[in-house]
Amino acid sequence: MDLILPDYGLLFWTALVFCLLLFLLAKFAWKPILNAVNAREQKIHEALELADKTRAEMLLLQAENEKILKEARAERDAIMNDAKQTAVEMVESAKNKAKVEANKIVESAKATIASEKDAAIRDLKNQLAGFSLDIAEKIVRTELSTDAKQKELAEKLADDINMN
Predict the structure, then answer these.
(1) How many whole angstroms separate alpha carbon 5 and alpha carbon 10?
(2) Phi, psi at residue 90, to the nearest 5°?
(3) Residues near 149 by Cβ (< 8 Å), separated by ≥ 6?
(4) Three-class SS of the chain
(5) pLDDT tier at 61 (50, 70, 90 boundaries)?
(6) Which residues does 153 contact at the CB level (< 8 Å), separation at least 6?
(7) 108-118 b/e with 16+ CB inside 10 Å = b?
(8) Distance (Å, rounded) from C-alpha 103 to C-alpha 82?
(9) pLDDT (tens digit, 9 = 90+) per residue, 106-161?
(10) Cα–Cα distance measured from residue 10 to residue 8, given in angstroms and rounded to the nearest whole number
């Protein structure tokens, strides 16, 4: 039964040591331990607040990034459309210039052909006139080879002049 009912002396010393330990802990250890626990709790609370702020900022940045991406895509599409339109205009302009140049070349070629044709016709006429004169000269020489024929022609021409 000694284990169940302790002696009063032992109970007194145990209580005294407990109170002394409680006093010493309260005086020297309790405040620093509580301060450390409170400081730790404050740091954890601040870390959670910082995490919440960071999460909110990340959501805001993500929304801004999406907005910027949409704007960039819209701007890219606008630039692409402008580039396509400019390319089409440049092609049309080049086609029109090519048509104008082709028409100028065709007109120049027609004018050149016409002038060369006229020159060829003049040359042909000159050659034909030269040939005609040569033939006429040969015919006249053969016709007027004798004196009698020359006199007959002279009389005929004189009669024609007198009639006029």
Answers:
(1) 11
(2) -65, -40
(3) 143
(4) CCCCCCCHHHHHHHHHHHHHHHHHHHHHHHHHHHHHHHHHHHHHHHHHHHHHHHHHHHHHHHHHHHHHHHHHHHHHHHHHHHHHHHHHHHHHHHHHHHHHHHHHHHHHHHHHHHHHHHHHHHHHHHHHHHHHHHHHHHHHHHHCCCHHHHHHHHHHHHHHHHHC
(5) very high
(6) 143, 144
(7) eeeeeeeeeee
(8) 31
(9) 999 999 999 999 999 999 999 998 888 888 888 877 777 777 777 887 788 788 88
(10) 5
This prediction's pTM: 0.41
The two three-digit tokens of residue 90, written as one number: 């440049």
Residue that is written with structure tokens 């910082």 in the block = 50
Is there a contact between 150 and 144 (Cβ–Cβ < 8 Å)? yes
Tokens of 33: 């331990």
- What's the distance, CA 96 to chain centroid? 22
- How many residues are recorded in the chain? 164
